[in-house]
Amino acid sequence: MSDVIAIFGPTGIGKTAVAIELAELLRARGEDPVAISADALQVYRGLETLSGAATAEEQARLEHRLIAFVPATDAFSVGEFMPLAHAEIDTALAEGRRPIVVGGTGLYLRAALTQLDLYPPPPASVRARWTVEVERRGPSELHRELVERAPWAVEDIEPTDRSRIIRTLELLEMGELEPREGESQLWTEHTRHPTELAGLTMEREELYRRIDERVDAMVAAGAKEEVERVEGAGASRTARKALGYEELLAGDIEAMKRRTRQYAKRQLTWMRKLAGVHTIDVTARQAEDIAREIAEASAA
Q1: Full-model pTM
Q2: 124, 132, 84, 87: which is closest to 108 by C-alpha?
Q3: Is residue 35 within 8 Å of 65, Cβ to Cβ?
Q4: Does the pLDDT at position 242 exceed 50?
């Protein structure tokens, strides 16, 4: 029997709904579940609509930890997240509760479940120099340069991802980024506690349809106004990375949909590389049915 249950999947696939139904099943067999978010953007207070954080109604059905606790004006990193996630999981287990880790950010999921080896922060001068360089030459040109210098380091980095391109260039300059023979930099099976990892997938066309509907629903719920308030208050550089943030500021809803579909595709690609993942195709299935499969697997 697994101590921890983790649910991973692309944005818009319905992870929160599955977690809530799973909690109901766990309670029926005498357990006390608690959800722990492993999402890089749901940590921000003030961006709940845009990040798809559990609503008040959803939280009333299942307690959620590590959502909306960082002001959107503050920068936040996986290095700060990891000890918080470990503490939440360890405390839940010590209290006899069942942690359900719910995540759409691969790095944060790994940080929550494993002991992640984190790279040191760069000197301010190094970051400033590469930030200027990416503005001068453009991210695509520097991405091409990275492909030539260190192809193994940019496997999962899009040519438009300024932040990750800058970070990779920094680490290369610092001598911190070296290929690791035979070791995945994405995932390890050595979790801190026995974990049932469920990866949710869906037929691509159906997922994209749901993503488009989700974006429309976010906009109708005030996501654009939410972003404008945070921008006016002085959003941090990490909060500004929220999926759709820049597009909503520009009023380009179609661009937000395209970017979200691209991100979901990368999430699915990442999930296929996870060792030990229990992949579940959720196309045309109800959340309760999916939750039952996860509950049975976790009890085995």
Answers
A1: 0.82
A2: 84
A3: yes
A4: yes
Is 64:7 a contact under the CB 8 Å cutoff? no
140/265 same-domain check = no
Same domain, 248 and 278: yes
Rounded Cα–Cα distance for residues 35 and 20 (Å)? 9
Per DSSP, the three-state class of 203 is: coil
Please check the confidence at residue 185 and state whether its pLDDT lies above 50: no
Cβ(137)–Cβ(61) under 8 Å? no
The amino acid that residue 8 corresponds to is F
Q: How far apart are CA 169 and CA 145, in angstroms?
A: 10
Residue 181, pLDDT score: 39
Domain that holds residue 157: 124-174
- Mean pLDDT (the chain, rounded): 91
Helix axes 162-174, 139-149, angle to 10 degrees: 40
Six-digit token pair at 158?
């899009």
Rg (CA), the chain: 19
Helix axis angle, 204-220 relative to 253-272, nearest 10°?
140
181 assigned to some structural domain:
no
Where are any strands of DSSP class E within the chain? 4-8, 33-38, 44-45, 64-65, 70-71, 98-103, 195-201, 278-281
